[in-house]
Design brief:
17% strand, disordered N terminus, 2 domains, Rossmann fold, eight-stranded mixed sheet, 15 helices, disordered C terminus
């Protein structure tokens, strides 16, 4: 195998050559997930909840994680191992696609999964065909499209074309269903399954959360959590902050990304550099939401953002842009929703949260109730299991 790629395979083969395991039960169908994870993020949280939840139910569940050479293994991989999922890591060099595909094929040959579940454009475009060539049904979850520059739009175009050949495609919001249909994915293969909340954040108390972020006990803190990239709209949040004159109102930015330096320059040019606390990337940021007096989501596009669930669970008053699947998660009864690309409207919503704290607290309480009522983990896992069973063959594939 190429020296640019190393693969660790520690799976058990559940069939023997030329024979079918007579003890196989439908409840034991095997599902193998493919993804190229970051250190943390919404996609990673979804895959952790799905894989870990299914493993906890006793279903054979695995994950193949494609990592760049030199990148640390994300912490959630070890949590999945502890939950009973079988985790394999493929370490890939730059553009070592042929060797990467060969390594993934080796894992698939050892596993012979009943269903392969991909997440993100990398496995959708490069690896879904490997699974199909071995006869496994393949489902992808479309977590969202970010748009942006020409290179990223090309990747998304390739992903949309690849998804036409999948046996099933899960969309996490209604706007994504419409986009997949426009992209030519057969409507009967599209399944709307919005994200769920696992409820496992173990939140810190307010003083501890602020201390963990290096923040004092005074001032009104507005939290912003996400990737520092255009689709998440961190620049819109900074522009909104500049429209709020209260000097003791600060924006706490948790996250990292390619826009970090330019956003710091923007904050300085807007005259708010002293009112922005840059926390950087933080593992398990959901535990820290009690530090905030309000939460701001300024995205230009979204699927169904997990960070919104984190704010709802923490009962933090929310000001959010009404994009993607967000209006299906919240109404103005539970949050203040504003148009995208409108810093003035976002600033007014944040100011309203501060001006009327009792009304804001009532909305936050309603949001927590809606999260518990509508986004439970068990029904979500049931819907995935139903789809897996529909796609799967009634017995494991014999080893070739």
């Amino acid at each position: 195998m190429s020296t640019s790629l190393a693969v660790r395979v520690e799976v058990m083969v559940v069939t023997v050559e030329g024979k079918i395991d007579e003890s196989f039960e439908p409840a034991r169908l095997s599902v193998l997930h493919l993804m190229a994870p970051g250190a943390f993020g919404g996609l990673e949280r979804v895959v952790e909840s799905l894989s870990g939840g299914r493993a906890a139910r006793g279903g054979r569940t695995g994950l193949v994680a494609i990592l760049d050479r030199g990148a640390p293994a994300p912490a959630f991989l070890q949590r999945l191992r502890s939950a009973g999922a079988e985790v394999e890591v493929v370490v890939s060099g730059h553009r070592a696609y042929r060797a990467e595909r060969a390594a993934v094929r080796a894992v698939l040959m050892a596993w012979r999964p009943d269903v392969v579940h991909t997440h993100g454009y990398h496995p959708d475009v490069l690896l879904g065909g490997v699974a199909r060539s071995l006869g496994a049904p393949v489902v992808s979850t479309t977590h969202g499209f970010t748009g942006g520059g020409r290179k990223n739009r090309l990747f998304e175009w390739l992903q949309e074309r690849a998804l036409r050949r999948f046996d099933a495609v899960i969309a996490v919001s209604r706007p994504l269903v419409s986009r997949l249909q426009r992209a030519g994915v057969p409507p009967e293969r599209i399944h709307l399954i919005p994200n769920a909340w696992a409820g496992d954040a173990s939140p810190l108390a307010r003083p501890d959360a602020r201390a963990a972020l290096g923040l004092g006990s005074q001032g009104f803190l507005v939290g912003w959590v996400g990737r520092l990239s255009p689709e998440k709209g961190p620049d819109v949040a900074l522009q909104a902050l500049a429209r709020i004159p209260d000097q003791d109102l600060h924006l706490v930015v948790i996250g990292d990304g390619r826009q970090a330096a330019s956003l710091r320059r923007l904050a300085a040019s807007l005259g708010v550099a002293g009112r922005v606390d840059w926390a950087g990337g933080v593992q398990d940021a959901a535990r820290l939401f009690a530090a905030f007096d309000a939460f701001c989501l300024s995205s230009r596009t979204e699927g169904t953002p997990m960070v919104l669930f984190e704010a709802m669970a923490a009962r933090v008053p929310i000001a959010a842009t009404a994009v993607g699947g967000i209006p299906d998660v919240l109404t103005n009864t539970e949050a203040l929703l504003v148009p995208s690309e409108d810093p003035a409207a976002l600033a007014a919503a944040i100011a309203e949260i501060r001006r009327a704290p009792e009304a804001a607290a009532a909305r936050a309480e309603a949001a927590a109730g809606r999260l518990a009522r509508d986004r439970g983990l068990e029904p979500w896992l049931d819907r995935h299991e139903e789809l897996y069973r529909r796609l799967a063959t009634p017995h494991p594939h014999p080893v070739s």
